[in-house]
Write a structure and sequence with these properties.
Largest sheet: 6 strands, mixed
Strand order of the largest sheet: 5-6-4-3-14-13
Strand content: 15-25%
Radius of gyration: 30 Å
Shape: elongated
Order of helices and strands: EEHHHHEHHEEEEEEHEEEEEHEHHEH
Number of strands: 16
Number of helices: 11
Amino acid sequence: MTDFSDQNFTYTVAFPSNILRFSSKCLTRRRHNSIYGLPVNMSSLHQSCYLLLLLLSSSFITAFSSSEVILGNVRSILNKVDELKVCTRYLSEYREASFMCFTEIFLSERVPDSVIDIPNYTLVRGDRTIESGKSRGGVLCFFINDSWCNNFSIKQKTCNTEFESLAIGLRPLYLPREFTQILVTAVYIHPKANADNVRDQLKATISLIENSYPDAANLIMGDFNRCKIGDIVPTYTQYIDLPTRNNNTLDLCYGNIKGRNYKVKTLAQLGSSDHSIIHMSPTYRRELERSKPIVKTRINWNEEAVDQLHECFECTNWTVFDDQNIHDTTITATEYVKFYVDVIIPERSLRIFPNGKPWVFKKLKSLVYEKKAAFSSGD
């Protein structure tokens, strides 16, 4: 949270720290006013708010709408909380992560949230219960960055001796318009689990989520051990191709967004865990940026061209089109009129951008530009 104070107003704005650092750096240099179109007579307060809103409405949103992910099998999180707090404070990979997903945290309902609380992150747990039949090991959790998302809900939870899953729905502060929300499912599969049973359970979980939220971006991640699920999700892409435990790739991430949308690298293990931590930074480009403008051709019916076409038709001897066959007469006359329209009436090309609104017509744009120019001139 950041406060901006003036003589009569106080603004409290919740922006990601990345944007605030960028805006403060720009505002320390007066020459940036001309670059961002800031009026010279605008106070520092209003310059700050103006620039922040400008950044939020520009392509800078792309970096903050995508999700940086930390994924790993920590093998008990209680003895690694202090190290994790240090990482989230001093290491940019952890500090700027949108959310962190950990498997095998070894927690039960008897452990309160305050024991593993991390500043600026919200904890979502999927603990083992008495009904699950598990007495040790397993369980999943998420740490969600408060500056990235504060609107989330638990969609599904499963815990048994062979398979665990925890699905959450996320509505970040900034989300590409092609997605309604981001659904993340954490998965842990026991090394000695029956592969067929686990695959059936996972398939049912994925089908339930996909049918309930067809327009959402789906991520399925966690420790799959040696269970292969590629044939269950044939339309998904597996993003992790680095070894996560010795020379084996056990921690995987599947997504329903086609292409290599994440740049993956490994980080050092947390404590004595035998799995490397996976950092995934997004390379996804919004559909708005990938779509090219559409070029359309329209006829420009100006007064001069219309008068010229009118004179042409007045000089036409229409009796030559008389024919006993009304069908032939209609076709001939229509082609004649079309020919002179194409010759006399000029055409103009229009570029329609994917973010263009049909109700924003030319006159409205000109009024917006006039208002902006009047504001910049101090009128």
